[in-house]
Amino acid sequence: MLIDEILNKAQEYEEEMTQFLCDIVAIPSYSGQEKVVADRIADEMRKVGFDEVKIDGLGNVFGRIGNGKTRIAMDAHMDVVGVGDPTQWKHDPFEGKVENGIVYGRGAGDQKAGMASMVYAGKIIKDLGLEGDYTLYIIGSVMEEVCDGLCWQYIVKEDRFKPDYVVITEPTNLNIYRGHRGRIEVRICTKGKSAHAAMPERGENAIYKMARIVLGIERLNERLKSDPFLGKGTIVVSQIFFKSPSENAVPDECVIHVDRRLTGGETKESSISELKKVIKESGVDAEVIEQTYEGVAYTGRKYSSEKYFRTWMMDEDSDIVRSAVETYKALFNAEPKIGKWNFSTNGVATAGLFGIPTIGFGPANEIYAHSPDDRAPVAHLVKAAAFYAYFPRAVSKRG
Question: Is residue 79 annotated as a catalytic residue, yes or no?
Fold first, then answer.
């Protein structure tokens, strides 16, 4: 049976997949510095027999299989966050250590495991002749950790590539995810008047003004709406800055950075309106400043995005979710768990901005992302590879 052949092939490539994952974990690939790992991934795609491999102007890696009507993209970002306190790591973050069936290291789960499984899914498709009326693109994307979806804005707008379906391979613990909250990042600025700290009554303290707003934001978080699937919206003051002539002067400017997570029905406009109401109620003058990310890729290409990352959610009856469920049941003879991410992914662009049907399915558990326990079970690599090999046939029949 075809299912048995796919599962057997995935198991057959366990050792090669694991070694490939270890290899790319051992390559530090911070945002904007992904060139070495991109080249390594491209080499592996060529080795296992992809029909075409290329790297675009921003540095995203594209591996193509087939040339059919339905275009399916599977995405794994290649960049990783920093190590943090190295003393908290039990394993070298850039060794790619395998111990008791687990691959450890920075980016093992978030999300190089997804890349390893995708590439070997491509090999399974080629080995078993599973090509159909679809074209599969395996994409290693850049700079996700610093600006979710930036890479996909480039892919759609500059490469002019808009697939029919997208699978995000961020860690889901082998569950099927169909959305997550969005977010907007803004700064709020208050102005004051400087004076000597020995005579504070002669000045206007910008920090004191901001304190009233901060307390209002804390109260706002308690009354934000909730969505039955996505959960509650949240707001956090995550950073604070000030300007003052000296340590012995009244500060004349204060700025806070605000992280606002958006649940169903919430938008940039609605969240900014809420903040302006908080400011008005505080009784002080302040400015809400929308934020823009501007980055330089390892290719030297500059690219930017507003820091508004849209909420997205796929209906359980949508073709892509039903195809994912069909794939899971066929391969594993079990009912999948349908859920959502707590964090944000490139789905903010694929589904949120461009409306491309998107789901998540990935090896590893998201609870270890960005932690000194970053990890991926080897058994997950095998199951994910089988899922990625079968899914294009399932979804292309619906498309």
Answer: yes
